[in-house]
Specification:
The chain is an alpha+beta fold and about 70 residues long. About 25% of the residues lie in helices and about 10% in strands. It has a two-stranded antiparallel sheet with strand order 1-2. The protein is globular and about 25 Å long.
Length: about 70
């Protein structure tokens, strides 16, 4: 099984919402759509929503897609 640390660059990113835990880029994209108000919060794991102002943190992240 492929571990995050062994994954090709680009398939995984460091997430500031999770104290820079390495997550799949698909989870990053989904969370960015939540932060933008496109996708409902119920669609992501609760761990992404724990920080106060998670939307601002996500929108200002270097990985955020425009």
């Amino acid at each position: 099984m492929l571990k995050y640390k062994d994954a090709p660059l680009g398939d995984y990113v460091k997430c500031p919402l999770l104290d820079n835990e390495i997550i799949p880029s698909k989870d990053c994209f989904l969370m960015s759509t939540v932060a933008e108000g496109i996708t409902p919060k119920i669609c992501v794991e609760k761990k992404f929503l724990q920080k106060k102002d998670f939307e601002v943190i996500c929108m200002n992240c270097e990985n955020h897609r425009e």
